[in-house]
Amino acid sequence: MGSQQTTLPTSMPPKIKYPESKRFHGHRDDYPLWRTQCDVYFSANRHLFLNDESKTYYMLALMDGGEAAVWVRSFIDQNTQTDQFSPPAYKDFLKKLDESFAPPDVRAHALHKLSGLQQAGEPIASFNPKFNIAAHNAGIQDNRILINYYEKAINMPIRMEIRMRVPQPTEFTEWTTLAHQIDDLHRRNLVDFGSHLNPY
Fold first, then answer.
1. How many angstroms separate the CA atoms of 77 and 15, rounded?
2. CA–CA separation, 135 vs 150, rounded Å?
3. In angstroms, rounded to a whole number, what is the distance separating the alpha carbons of residues 199 and 193?
4. CA–CA gap between residue 34 and residue 75 (Å, rounded)
5. Is the separation of the CB atoms in 169 and 158 below 8 Å?
6. What is the pLDDT of residues 76-93, one digit of tens each?
7. Nearest Cα to 32, choosing from 110, 126, 128?
8. Whether the predicted pLDDT of 11 surpasses 90
9. Which of 2, 51, 141, 193 is the most exposed place for a label (fewest CB within 10 A)?
10. Which helix (H) or strand (E) holds 85?
11. pLDDT-derived band of residue 199, with 50, 70 and 90 as boundaries?
């Protein structure tokens, strides 16, 4: 008789449960954070939101009080034909939300904040998220524009090293990834060889 092999059960990776977005009642000061919470929740639960329409319904369901609830009722009425609610494209829905609830000059304020960001002595690992949030709040999505702002914000040695790459990266995510790698290497060298090798 041949020997039997015992197959050990494979352990499933633990499932992470992310907190749901808070409810929104129309207070403009709460709007930017609420929008960000929704974006994070959608990204972390892609299996639940298979299309943009499901995101629209989720956000509408959270707007269940105060001025937000009144807005939802009006929004549904405006997009209902023959007793059937048909929401617009997700990007148009977000645009209407911004027009109605974004604090005055929020984009101008975010753009000003983005322009003033400087890495200085901060590790890229913690600087990149700050830059991404400011860019998101400013409504900037174009790669070339994002790179222009990012180049001015990061430290000169990192900027020059990326510029010397052949071919030079053209995607914003490539810039942030390379900057992270270069900055991390500089800081590890600093630990290994002493503070007199401070690259900045």
1. 39
2. 10
3. 11
4. 19
5. no
6. 999 998 889 999 999 999
7. 110
8. no
9. 2
10. strand 84-85
11. low
Tell which residue, 129, 117, 114, has the closest CA to residue 40: 129
pLDDT above 90 (res 159): yes
What is the tens place of the pLDDT at every residue in 13-30? 566 677 788 999 999 889
Tokens 């319904």 identify what position? 57
Q: Which helix (H) or strand (E) covers residue 81, if one does?
A: strand 80-81
* H-assigned helices in the chain: 31-44, 52-62, 66-78, 90-101, 106-116, 124-137, 143-153, 156-163, 172-193
Token readout for 134 is 């400011």
Domain regions of the chain by residue span: 28-101, 106-197
pLDDT at 14: 62
